[in-house]
Amino acid sequence: MARSRAISEYTEAEDKSLRLGFLLIAAGLFSLLGLGCCWLRPALQERGGGSSANCTVLAVRQLGERFFCTFSCGTACRGTARYPCLQVLVRTSRSSAPALLHEDERQLRTNPKCSYIPPCARDDQENSENVTYKQKYWKEKVGSQPFTCYFNQHLRPDDVMLKRTHDETVLLHCFLWPLVTFLVGVLIVVLTICAKSLAVRAEAIKKKKHL
């Protein structure tokens, strides 16, 4: 009787496998909940109602106002510089009203008044040259050629984006890796329990043959 009870109990290795499996299951569930509440839900809200359209440039201009940006010159070296504000006004195929173009949602949140934020350099003149280059690009290379843009008529009718920050690939990975972690944990638990069950049955059959 004691021997039968010992066989049905899990060994130290099997116990570790079970704990690892349950740990992975818990990690996968908590990751899904955390990402869903802290990142995925705002991303979906940001994309909610968004549509693509064809945009055409109406005007490209620099405002007299300058904005501050932060540059880094080493691990413990940071400073501020300034850059001019570039505005690219476009018309979408969905509306005749002019809208302000932005690089993406991050740029829109950082500076909703401008269309472009250059990589922040220590020298203000270098920042101005980067903005001027971008201005020439929209005037001369793009001109009146239509291009794809994105907008949300309900949340931001006066702004359009050149690209989306949260695309389908990012959202897929947000779900994929926690789900893989969860499934691997379930697989480890199921295989450990099945292996133990088979071992107990095999031992029981062996005992019957010796009786």
How would you describe the overall organization of this protein?
It holds the Pfam family CaKB. Keywords: Glycoprotein, Ion channel, Ion transport, Membrane, Transmembrane, Transmembrane helix, Transport. It comes from Haliaeetus albicilla. The protein folds into 2 domains: 21-36 and 170-210, no CATH class; 51-163, no CATH class. It is 53% helix and 28% strand. It is built from 5 helices and 5 strands. It has helices spanning 2-8, 12-47, 105-110, 124-142, 168-210; strands at residues 51-74, 77-92, 95-102, 147-152, 156-161. The longest helix has 43 residues, at 168-210.
N-to-C SSE string, H for helix and E for strand: HHEEEHHEEH
Strand order within the widest beta sheet? 1-2-3-5-4
Major sheet, described briefly?
5 strands, mixed, barrel
Low-confidence stretches: 1-7
Share of helix among residues? Answer: 40-55%
Distance between the termini: 15 Å
Task: Give the tally of structural domains.
Answer: 2
* Beta-strand segment tally: 5
Question: Any idea what the radius of gyration is?
Answer: 29 Å
SS element count, helices: 5
Mean pLDDT level: 81
Give the CA-based shape: elongated
The percentage of residues in β strands lies in: 25-35%
Structural class: alpha+beta
Topology:
Layout: H1 2-8, H2 12-47, E1 51-74, E2 77-92, E3 95-102, H3 105-110, H4 124-142, E4 147-152, E5 156-161, H5 168-210
Parallel strand pairs: 3-5
Antiparallel strand pairs: 1-2, 1-4, 2-3, 4-5
